[in-house]
Each structure stands twice: as C-alpha cells, then as structure tokens.
User: What shape does this take?
Amino acid sequence: MFAIVLLSGALGIAAATEKKRRAKIFSEFYEFNEKLLLNLKYGREKVSKVAEEFESVRKVMDGNEVLKGEDGEFLKKYVSGIGETDAVTQVEYLNERKLALNEYKQKSQENYKKYGSLYVKLALMAGLLVAVLLA
Assistant: This one.
C-alpha cells in the first residue's frame, strides 16, 4: 500500500518538474536576450560566445527541441531571427522579443507556482485514496 502512495507522489513530482523546467527555459532565454542586447550595444562578441553559458539556447541553436508545441516553435523562430540583420535592426528585433519572452517567462513562473505543488498534493491524495480503498 505504501508503494502506491510513493508511486503517485513520484508522478506528481514529475508533473511539477516539467512546469519548473519550462519556467527555467523561458527565464534562460530572457536572460540570453538581455545579454545579447548589451553585447550588441557595447561588446560585439559572436552570438555563439554569448550563448555559451545558456544550455537551452545552445540546444535550440543546434536544431534540437527543448519545448514542444507552440512554445518550441516560438523559441525556434526567435533563434532563427538572431544574426540575420544589421546591428540597429537586430536591437529592434531583440527589444520586441524581450517583451514576448518576458510574458512567456512570467506566465510559466506563475503556472509553476500555481500548479507545481498542486500536482504533488493531488497525486499524493489520490495515492492515499487508492491505498485506503484497497485496504
């Protein structure tokens, strides 16, 4: 019976972990965008050099998928627009994307805060219910 409760708790933790991962990815892309803006204005280093410390950004730049669905498509389009134009137009593009990335970041963080612990609690309660019913 105890195994049922542990298994259901693990399922809840797995669901909450996905929400946390999504929030971390959007936060990372937002920070990358900020660093890239500063680099374009002052540093002029290569994009690959700026992206070195951002694992998710590097993965998307290499053609891998870090998120599925609309979110993944947004990130692919974002990365594909980097380095395509002159510096002035690129700064404008990054400022536009900054707003969108900030919105995605805030929504994903709110979603994690709201539903992360809820999933764990609901899964544990469901496991307890099943254990009590089987006892």
